[in-house]
Amino acid sequence: MWRNPFKRPEPEQDRWTERDLALESAPWTPLHGLDDDDFGPQAAPPRHYDRERYREGWRRFLPERARGRGKLWWASRIFAAIIAVFILLVAWLAITAPLSKSLEPIAPPQITLLAADGTPIARNGAMVDEPVQVSELPEHVVQPFLAIEDRRFYDHWGIDPRGVGRALFMGVGGGSTITQQLAKFTFLTPEQTLTRKAREALIALWLESWLTKDEILERYLSNAYFGDNMYGLRAASLHYFYRQPENLRPEQAAMLAGLLQAPSRLAPTRNPDLAAQRYALVKNAMVAAGYITQGQADAMRVPELDVRTRNDVPTGTYFADWALPAAREQSEMNYSRQTITTTLDSNLQAAANRVIQRAPLGGAQVALVAMRPNGEVVAMVGGKDYSESPFNRATQARRQPGSTFKLFVYLAALRNGWNPDDRISNAEFTEGSYQPSNSNGRYSESLTLREAFAQSSNVAAVRLFNEVGSEAVIETARELGVSSPLPEGDPSMALGTSTMSLLELTAAYAGVAANSFPVDPHAFAAEEGGWFDWILDGQGNLGSSDHEAIEDMLRTAINAGTGRAATLSIANYGKTGTTQDNRDALFVGYAGEGENRLVVGVWIGNDDNSPLGNVYGGGLPARIWRDFMRAALGASAAPPRATPSPDPSGPVQPQDVPELQDIPLGDNRRLIINDEEAVLSTDIEGVPLEVRVRDGAFSFELDEEAARREVERRVEEAGQQ
To answer: Which one, of 539, 543, 549, 484, lies nearest residue 517 by Cα?
Structure first.
C-alpha cells in the first residue's frame, strides 16, 4: 500500500511525555545538540522525526512541487544546467574570441599612399609579412622560442602550473604559456587585472581544444611584436638580418627569440648591449632544455645585423593623416602590405609647398586646400611645418570664416528673388542692440548687391540677412554641405562668426563652381555611378540665372573689389574674409575650366587666436592664392608678357647653375627669384609691399587696404595730439 513519505504518522500518546507534547506544539527549531534523553525517559523519539525536520530545513526554500523529487531527478537537472552553462560559454568564446581572429595581424598592416601619378607620398602602419609555417622552419629556429618562452609547450593544455611555479621561484621562463600569450595579444587588452587573466586562461583552453599545437605556434610567431614596428617572425627576420625565417642561422633565431620579452627596449638596432645580454639568457635556456650543449652555446657569437632601409618615404603628411582613416576602411585586414592611389597631384602639392614657404608669414600659421569641383582633393597644407606640428589646420581647426560666409547670405537672397542690381542700404547702424560697422569706416545711402558683395560691406550683409531671414541662409549653407552649427536668428552669422573648417568652407565653394552640391571632399577617386545612381544621388543645383548671378558677384569681388590682389589673367572667382580684430584672414575662390578647374581655400591665423596685425583676407591670403593658381594653371593664369626672340650671337646661358628661389634678407624682407620674375617682399611702416621685376620692367603691389588703415590710424593719432 502506497504511503505518503511526507506525512507523519500519528504519535503513540502512551509513549510521549508532556515535554514531548510541548515540543510538538512549539515552533520548529533545528534539533542539533539534542540527545535521546531530552525526549523523555521512556523511549527515544521515532527516527522519522529527525529526518522530517532536517528535510524541511533546506526543502522549505523550494517550490511545493519540487520538494518530493528524488535524487535521479535532481542529478538530471544539475547535469542539464552544466550543459547549458557550457553551451553559453562556447557561444561567448565564439563571439569574443573567434578562431579566425588569431589569423589576422594584431596591428594594421603598412599602407603606402601614392599620388595620382604613382609617386609614393607616405607610408603608415606596422610592418607585417606572410605567416610562417612551422613545418617549413628548421628546428634551430623554433627551439629558441620554446626554450625561453614555453619549454613545455607540447606537454600542457594551454596553462602550465609548472611553468608558473618556475617563473615565480626560479626566475626562469615566463609565467604565461605561448597559448596564453597568443590569447592575450590577439583577443585581450593589455590591462593587468584578475578578470583579464581569467579570460586569458579560458581562451587559452579554448584555443588548445580547437587548434593543433603547430597551428597555435604558427599564429604566435606570425603575430608577435619584435620591435622597430616589426610584427611577425618573417618581417622581423627580413628587417634585422635581411633573410627569410626559413634561412635563419641558429644565433640569429636565438637573438630574435630574446626580443619578445620587451621588444622596444631590447631591439638590437636601439640597445645592442641589452639585446646581447638577453641573447645570452636564451642560449642558457636552450642548454637547460637540452636543445644544445654548453659547448655549442659558447660557440654561438652575437650575430651581426643587416638592416636595410625599406621605408624611405615619410610616415606622415597633412594629406596622408587625413586620408589614412578612409584608406584603412577600404583596405582588407590581412598580412600583405597595400598600396592605394590617392587624388593628390604631386606637382600641385609641390607648388603649394613652395608658395607657402615663400610667403612672409612671420609667426602665423597657414593652411591651403585645393580640390576639383567634384571634391577630389589635389593639394593640402595644414601648417608651415609638419615635423614641428602635425595638427592639420585645414581639416581639424575650426575658425571663423569671416566675410567668406557672405556667399551663403547673397546666394540665399538670389534664390529668394533678388538680383545683383537690386539696391540695399549701406548706411551706418545707429539703433538696435547689434550695430555692426564696415571695416573701412565708409558708408553710403545704398549699394547694389554686386557692389556690396565686392566691397564686402558688413552693414549691407546684415541688412540683407535680416531681409532674407536666418532660416533661408542656414538652409542654403546646409544644401552646400556646411554641417557645422549655425545659430538661428543671430545676425552676426552674416559676417562669419560661426566656426567651421577650411576644408568644409572650400567644399561649399566647390559646390558653386560645379553647380552641383553638396560636394564631399575625398582623397580617393570615387567610382562612377550608373544612370540610376545619377537619378537618385540627391544632388542639388542652382538655376541658370542664379548661378550666373553669383558667379558675376564672385568675379566682381576678385577683379574690382577686396580680392584684387588675387586677380588672374583668366576667369577667376573668389571672396576675401577677415574676422574681428584680424584674428583670421582667408581667401576662397576658383579658376580654370573643365577638368583643370581648381577650387582653393587659403587661411592664415595664429594657433592661439591672437590678432594678426596688418594681415587681411585681401592681402597675403589673396596673394598666396594667386601665386598657387599661377603655378597650378600655368601660363594661362599669369598676365601676358612679351617673349623675346633668342639671340644666337648672345652669351651662352648656363644650364647647370642651381636656381635661386627664396633668399631671406632679414627685417621681414625676402627676395624671391623664379623663371618669370624677381620679387622683393617687404613692408613700409607695417604696410606690405611687393616690388616685381619682369622683363626689365618694375611694378609695385601695395596692400591698399592695409595702407588705408595705416593712414587712418596716423590721422587719428594726429587729431588726438
So the answer is: 539
Q: Following CA atoms 679, 680, 681, 684 in sequence, which dihedral angle do they give, to the nearest 10 degrees?
A: -140
What pairs with residue 691 in β-bridges?
A: 680, 700
The answer to whether 619 touches 706, Cβ cutoff 8 Å, is: yes
Quick one: average pLDDT of 52-67?
57
Q: How far is residue 308's CA from residue 169's CA, in Å, rounded to a whole number?
A: 42
Q: What pLDDT is attached to residue 661? A: 46
How many of the other CB atoms lie within 10 Å of CB of 359? 23
Which sign does the torsion angle of CA 157, 161, 162, 164 carry? positive
User: Is 455:447 a contact under the CB 8 Å cutoff?
Assistant: yes
| Nearest to 488, CA basis, from 504, 502, 475, 500 | 475
Instruction: Give the C-alpha distances (Å, rounded to integers) separating 193 from 200, 338, 638.
Output: 11, 36, 67
Q: Within 13 Å and on the Cβ side, how many CA atoms surround 704?
A: 9
Q: Are 458 and 406 in contact (CB under 8 A)?
A: no
Three-state DSSP state, 141: helix
Q: Which residues contact 47 (CB under 8 A, 6 or more apart)?
A: none
Interacting residues of 303 by C-beta distance below 8 A, sequence separation 6+: 241, 249, 251, 252, 255
pLDDT tens digits, 128-144:
888 999 999 999 999 99
Per-residue pLDDT of 179-207, as tens digits, reads 888 888 776 655 555 555 667 777 777 78
* CA distance linking residue 268 with residue 227, whole number of Å: 9
Confidence (pLDDT) at 266:
94
Q: Which residues contact 489 (CB under 8 A, 6 or more apart)?
A: 470
Strand 127-128 to 230-231 pairing: parallel
Length of the chain: 721
Measured between its terminal Cα atoms, the distance across the chain in Å is 128
Is there a cis peptide before residue 518, judged by omega within 30 degrees of 0? yes
Question: 548-570 burial, b if ≥16 CB within 10 A, otherwise e?
Answer: ebbbbbbbbbbbebbbbbbebee
Architecture of domain 110-299: Orthogonal Bundle (1.10)
> What pLDDT score does 636 carry?
74
Contact 410, 542 (CB under 8 A): no
Q: SS3 for 183?
A: helix
Determine the number of helices (DSSP H) and then strands (DSSP E) in the chain.
24, 17
What pLDDT score does 32 carry? 45
Lowest mean pLDDT among 33-42, 270-279, 497-506: 33-42
Residue type, 331: S
Between CA 570 and CA 663 the distance in angstroms is 30
Query: What's at 323, amino acid-wise?
Result: A
Which phi and psi angles does 283 have, rounded to 5°?
A: -60, -40
CA quadruple 453, 459, 464, 465: dihedral sign = positive
Contact 259, 241 (CB under 8 A): no
Question: DSSP secondary structure string, 270-295?
Answer: T-HHHHHHHHHHHHHHHHHHTSS-HH
**CA count, 13 A, side-chain hemisphere, 43:** 9
Residues 28 and 20: their CA atoms lie apart, in Å, by: 13
- Burial of 469 by CB count in 10 Å (0-12 exposed, 13-18 middle, 19+ buried)? middle
Q: Could you read off the pLDDT of 378-437 as tens digits, one per residue?
A: 999 999 999 999 999 999 999 999 999 999 999 999 999 999 999 999 999 998 899 999
How far is 247 from 300, CA to CA, in rounded Å?
17
- Would you say 175 and 163 are in contact if contact means Cβ atoms under 8 Å apart? yes
Instruction: Enumerate the domain spans of the chain.
Output: 73-102, 110-299, 354-526+543-633, 662-720
Q: In what helix (H) or strand (E) does residue 166 lie, and over which residues does it extend?
A: helix 161-169
- For residue 721, is pLDDT > 90? no
CATH number for the domain whose boundaries are 354-526+543-633 = 3.40.710.10
